[in-house]
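Please, structure for the following, as tokens.
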Amino acid sequence: MTAAPPLLSVEDLFVSFHTRDGVARVINGVSLQVDAGESLAILGESGSGKSVTAQAIMGILDVPPARIDGGRILYQGRDLLAIDERERRAVRGAGIAMVFQDALSALNPVFPVGWQIAESLRVHEGLSKPEAHERAVRLMERVRIPAARERARDYPHQFSGGMRQRVMIAMALALNPRVLIADEPTTALDVTVQAQIMDLLAELQHDTGMALILITHDLGVVASVADRIAVMYAGRIVEHGDVHAIYE
């Protein structure tokens, strides 16, 4: 009997950036995989290629200057690099979603956060405005934003950094993705809020059974969340293993 393929796998991925100054080879043969209910932390210093790997998986690299030079990105056994943009959009959000590093930049400053969460539900699921708004409020409650119904009318700048990150998580969860990528979700947050966000991600993963890919440069934030760790350096994975083995 043939074993089922991993939920998401990256095989021998190469990415370069082409500029007037030359070619920078940023990802050099990265391979990784994650299954439903599993959490993988990608750990590495700034510039190691962590976020570029995530953007390649999501299909949101700026092309040009970025170029995928080789490899495969398989979601449920299907190569995302071999499908057109329309099919890729269908996977993005509903199949694989992402929480971005800088919530203030990722959120639109001119629309209330409830509207922004509801918009993806209207576009992808065809919900009416009232239905989408009600779902948005429930999502905000799910990520523990106090007074969610009232706060849904507020704008991104009216939230603290930790609450903005919760809004981003609510947006990412809107379409019930099977894989959630969290790119440095606790950067610039104080230690207490970092712990709250990590606990929230772990709880949501447990409740939904989704796969979680956590991108970070901070070994301290992954111990209680990750099952496995992949250490990146200079565009390569240089170490990979069970979280407890890596810590030892």
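The mean pLDDT is 91. Residues 191-208 form the longest helix (18 residues).
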